[in-house]
């Protein structure tokens, strides 16, 4: 009998100009997707970071965490994160993501969207620590949220909306971060929690 959690390892390329983006709809995991979500929520040392917008300090509308190889740091949006050491579960997820993407990573940035009110503003993963053309592998567990991509320069291109279900891997590489920004909007329809893991390579 075919294992439910090893259904498909073929990435589907998305037809986006000035980008290299592909999606894998179900990645093999050591536990069921609901159990993966529970473990990640319970075992991750989440942080509530703050950002300054127009002179005012606000809580980020989500919780975050960074795990990475020793000696790595990551700065974004005026926030400096010092990573925690890898857990056994995160190492196993990393191994499986590396296996299906043919890439290697030394860090994972985690986001916890607690409900439909949590979100992520539009941005590009273009920090200097990531290098010129970073490879970003994004893995989802929990509620389906819509990942929105907007071209930075070609305003005539409409936003691209990609529903990311549990077990989905979204792979961005090449010139994607130069030409596109991405985010996750709040939504009116209530939903449960979602954990997103973005595997990346920090050069610092």
UniProtKB/TrEMBL annotation:
Gene Ontology molecular functions: catalytic activity, acting on DNA; demethylase activity; dioxygenase activity; hydrolase activity; metal ion binding; oxidoreductase activity, acting on paired donors, with incorporation or reduction of molecular oxygen
Cofactor: Fe(2+)
Keyword Repeat among record annotations: no
Protein name per UniProt: Putative alkylated DNA repair protein
Keywords, in A-Z order: Dioxygenase, DNA damage, DNA repair, Iron, Magnesium, Metal-binding, Oxidoreductase
Biological-process GO terms, alphabetical: DNA alkylation repair
InterPro entries in the cross-refs: AlkB-like, AlkB-like_sf, ALKBH3, Oxoglu/Fe-dep_dioxygenase_dom
PANTHER family: ALPHA-KETOGLUTARATE-DEPENDENT DIOXYGENASE ALKB HOMOLOG 3 (PTHR31212)
Entry superkingdom: Bacteria
């Amino acid at each position: 009998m075919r294992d439910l959690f090893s259904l498909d390892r073929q990435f589907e390329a998305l037809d986006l100009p000035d980008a290299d983006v592909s999606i894998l709809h179900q990645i093999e995991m050591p536990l069921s997707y609901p159990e993966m979500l529970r473990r990640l929520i319970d075992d991750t040392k989440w942080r509530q970071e703050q950002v300054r917008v127009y002179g005012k300090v606000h809580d980020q509308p989500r919780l975050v965490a960074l795990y990475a190889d020793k000696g790595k740091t990551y700065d974004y949006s005026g926030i400096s994160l010092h990573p925690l050491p890898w857990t056994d579960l995160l190492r196993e997820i990393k191994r499986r993501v590396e296996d299906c993407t043919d890439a290697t990573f030394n860090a994972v940035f985690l986001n916890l969207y607690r409900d439909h009110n949590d979100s992520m503003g539009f941005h590009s993963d273009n920090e200097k620590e990531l290098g010129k053309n970073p490879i970003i592998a994004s893995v989802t567990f929990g509620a389906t949220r819509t990942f929105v991509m907007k071209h930075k320069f070609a305003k005539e291109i409409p936003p691209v909306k990609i529903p990311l279900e549990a077990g989905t891997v979204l792979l961005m590489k090449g010139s994607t971060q130069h030409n596109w920004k991405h985010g996750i909007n709040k939504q009116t329809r209530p939903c449960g929690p979602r954990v997103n893991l973005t595997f990346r390579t920090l050069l610092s």
